[in-house]
Amino acid sequence: MSMITRSRGRKSLRSKPNIIFSTNFSNDTGYSASGYGSLEYTNVPTGFDAIRCQGASSLEVLPVGINGSNALRISYDPALGQPTCALLKHLTQNTNTGFNELFVRFRVKLPNAFKWGDGTSPIDYWKWMRLAQNEVWPSPFVGENRADSFYVVTTCGWNPAYNEWCGFSSAWGANAGDNLTSGSAGGYHCVVYHESGSRPPAIPGWTIDKTTNVGFLQTYTDSQAQDWVTVEFRYRLATSETAQNGIFHAHYNNVKQNEPDRFVTAYNTLGLPAFTGAPTANHNGFNIIGLYDNMATLNVDWDEIGVDGYIDVNDFAVATNRIGHEYNP
């Protein structure tokens, strides 16, 4: 039985979420997109402003959600080393306004025959979320490759040093103006590793088979079929460049994950003074969100016989306070 049920009218002590944007893809039956190497602004799901899906990567709305509802299936081209598949939403339609704190909640489900990793190495990055400040409106979106870019990138990955887990980290950074083609890899970074001690929390049901296939996330080696997992991220901008009081944390199925929430590692690829240019409330708030993005070499096995290489996504919501496990768009 699914861990998620669609029930209305349930009373809760938690305040009602202040929703900025939400979708369950119910108005997008039959939607599909593929082969957009650059941003596409017309063929987009309801409420979004742009998409990008390179090569044979694709976005499809299918009746594979909870209780047969619609869900968005995201697939990545196995022939590409760093394929992109992303949906973009401008939250304010104003370049100079945004939100200093956001909560992003959605449900995800892996296929029962999923393979991720080469068996020996750390699993590289898979970008699940992007936020940015001062993003231009109207389109086209520029992203981090501009002088006034302040951004957050949340990635999912795994490292064998931490044993069995598959969790998230977030990089908060800025472009300094002299590396405008380097994106999130070339500017100042302030990285938040969501961990406690030496082991970050695992996403429920996402296990690493380290006995027979060290380094693989393989759902088809488990005896239990995959279920929907609710993921919620909290992002709060620091009050100043030196305050270090920005927050990133995660809930899985309504359970808040281990501390710490705050910045624990800072590194600087351009030799800038510490925290100079980091995302803060002084640079206006977040005004654009990207749901998923690119991954690095994680999809190389997705065209093997017997392997299903995709992820299903549903009930996407953005708010200024906690959304919670039960909320349905």
Description of the molecule:
This protein has 329 residues and is an all-beta fold. The chain has one domain: Jelly Rolls (Sandwich). The protein is 0% helix and 38% strand. The chain has no helices and 19 strands. The strands form two sheets. It has a 16-stranded antiparallel β-sheet that branches. Strand 9 and strand 10 form a beta hairpin. It is globular. It starts with 18 loop residues before the first strand and ends in a 10-residue tail after the last strand.
Summarize the structure.
The protein contains no helices and 19 strands. The chain has strands at residues 19-23, 32-40, 50-62, 71-75, 85-90, 101-109, 115-116, 123-133, 150-158, 167-174, 188-193, 208-209, 216-218, 229-236, 247-252, 255-256, 265-268, 286-291, 310-319. The chain has a 16-stranded antiparallel β-sheet that branches. A three-stranded antiparallel β-sheet has the order 7-13-12, with no helix packed on it.
Key attributes of the depicted protein:
mainly beta, 3-stranded antiparallel beta sheet, disordered N terminus
Helix content: under 10%
Q: Can you tell me the CATH architecture?
A: Sandwich
Largest sheet, in brief, is: 16 strands, antiparallel
| Terminal-residue CA separation | 21 Å
Which term fits the overall shape?
globular
What is the topological layout?
Layout: E1 19-23, E2 32-40, E3 50-62, E4 71-75, E5 85-90, E6 101-109, E7 115-116, E8 123-133, E9 150-158, E10 167-174, E11 188-193, E12 208-209, E13 216-218, E14 229-236, E15 247-252, E16 255-256, E17 265-268, E18 286-291, E19 310-319
Antiparallel strand pairs: 1-19, 2-3, 3-4, 3-5, 4-19, 5-18, 6-14, 6-19, 7-13, 8-9, 8-18, 9-10, 10-11, 11-17, 12-13, 14-15, 15-16
